[in-house]
Amino acid sequence: MAANPSEKKETQFYYPSEAFVQNAAISGMNAYHALCRAAAEDYEGFWAELAQENVLWHKPFTRVLNETNPPFYKWFEDGELNVSWNCLDKNLVNGNAEKDAIIFEADDGTVTKVTYRELHRRVCKLANGLKSLGVRKGDRVVIYMAMSIEAVVAMQACARIGAIHSVVFGGFSAPSLGERIENAGAVAVITADMQIRGGRRLPLKAIVDDALAMSESHTVKNVIVYQRTDEEIPFDKGRDHWMHELMQSQSEICQPEWVNAEHPLFILYTSGSTGNPKGAQHSSGGYLLWAIMTMRWTFDIKPTDIFWCTADIGWITGHTYNAYGPLAVGATIVLFEGVPTYPHAGRFWEMIEKHKVSIFYTAPTAVRSLIKASSENRQFAPEQYDLSSLRLLGSVGEPINPEAWLWFYKHIGKERCPIVDTFWQTETGGHVIAPMPGATPQVPGSCTLPLPGLSVSVVDETGQELPWGQGGILVINRPWPSMIRTVWGNDERYKTHYWPEELGGKLYQAGDGAIRDPETGYFTITGRIDDVLNVSGHALGTMEVESVLAAHPMVAEAAVVGKPDDLTGESICAFVILKDELPQGDQAKSIASDLRKWVSKEISPIARPKEIRFGENLPKTRSGKIMRRLLRVIARGEEITQDISTLENPAILDQLRNSL
Ligand code: PRX
């Protein structure tokens, strides 16, 4: 399967090199198909073998899959383990103790490295510190930190004592953070005094203070603060503790808390199609297994690799491919505090050169913004850097358009590195559809085929599988180990949202549309089928943004839709009806700017609408339902060809169309 340039053009396939194939964990398509066959022939046997060989069990499991109470499936349920023990202690006895676990590069370029031994030491000390504050197995701990070694230490320390962490992305506002703290019923928050990104400081601890002041249930008894800077911050002596002081007197030994395989490792909030975010609850055993397998299969990880996943630990990608997966396979990771464009647009390439990164995993939005930046200023183009250490590239979070794929392939991978376009979700815990880099011929714009063990289909509205070539709903046919277990505190929401009755109740509905290539069966994701937007790879619920806009004192009503965007994949367009009369000119501009700031403050800058259009009303049916599909057409600047006979107020369409 060596590269064959003449074939490339005809077939649009991109093949891994012979050398890559030979050394790969899954070497060639026959090996891939053999694994898929093994799973199809004996599903439980397939998973049992992987779990026995790849996870260290304190008490081995005897039961593989429990399907007696669908969709509340259990995996390896009588097995006991500890995830932090699998990630750290294992590496102290297998020759990795002095190997770098994390290479941390701060915003200002300062580099700090920690070995597995040192990471283990810090995790044990913080774990003991948390215990000394009364944090126990099953307690929830919210982590609100920026990218740092300490953030990984915090996550691992929770895992060590069986506390359930819930990391909230550092860009979320106080109300969003408060809502998550409340929903999780957290007993402690781990944060930092400041976050530094792109030369700017954000007062994380002050935001935690605000979030806690809004809290009604007062479950949080302790706040642990990592000191990132020397800035003075407000400190409540009865509640707040500096992380370094808490750790100082603690023992370097912390026996792991053995937990059941189904014990929740973490909750991670994700946007849903209704207003309030849902806490995806993940297990310990099944989640860890898939984090390990995907490191081996999708990333083909080798002991000498330097693995850099640019995702923040506040997202699922940062959980599985920074905090857990790479450590569980003894890899060295690069962790970056800053942003790709600071102090210049060559920062990513400079870091790849400096740290000799061999596997680079990032989001299409980042690729697109760097294409633009490097064409504007050749000084920071990738050609100015030595990227020869790279051997594999990955993409995640949103569809990668063929143009960006080809640029990534040519300019970063130098036509030498396979690209793994990984489709998955917060709820799936790890990759679902992705090329195996030493096997699957890649096609730009397609995430290709499901990983071995995952049975994925495209079905119609009744759950019937559709023939290849016909677009429909993406589903996963069988429970798999790393799947979401429930929505924290809301079993009903989990059941109805992910296992809809309309599809028969036994298919996991991803919420995405997909189509399979008629000849190869390759999957292409066609986008969300619900009201979830994907801005720069971040899922955002339209309702979430709408309810915040509607809560602004000037706003009577608001509707939000997605619109294709060259840079961010999708951008937010908001249609807003004010309580006062329709604003014009500069007044409209100034109100729009206020509303953007408001959304930033209430949710996060990610949720800020790029476009705001004012009208006297929204297009509604006679029964009062907002016709979003018409708003989507208007936002895209397309002609309305749909049936508008059920519309109560057709004249409003022209007004909204001309409102920019
Ligand atoms: O719509 C799909 C899109 O991102 C959604 C999941 O978002 P989130 O839970 O935030 O997790 C993102 C990181 C895994 C999916 O439902 N998505 C993710 N990866 C891809 C993708 N769409 C197309 N291609 C991908 N590779």
TrEMBL record:
Residues binding CoA: 197-200, 317, 536
Residues modified as N6-acetyllysine: 625
Ligand binding (Mg(2+)): 552, 555
Domain Acetyl-coenzyme A synthetase N-terminal: 32-87
InterPro entries reported for this sequence: Ac_CoA_lig, ACAS_N, AMP-bd_C, AMP-bd_C_sf, AMP-binding_CS, AMP-dep_synth/lig_dom, ANL_N_sf
Enzyme class: ligase
Positions bound to ATP: 397-399, 421-426, 512, 528
Entry keyword annotation includes Metal-binding: yes
Chemical reaction(s) catalysed: acetate + ATP + CoA = acetyl-CoA + AMP + diphosphate
The protein's role, per its UniProt record: Catalyzes the conversion of acetate into acetyl-CoA (AcCoA), an essential intermediate at the junction of anabolic and catabolic pathways. AcsA undergoes a two-step reaction. In the first half reaction, AcsA combines acetate with ATP to form acetyl-adenylate (AcAMP) intermediate. In the second half reaction, it can then transfer the acetyl group from AcAMP to the sulfhydryl group of CoA, forming the product AcCoA.
Name the record gives this protein: Acetyl-coenzyme A synthetase
Organism, scientific name: Oxalobacter aliiformigenes
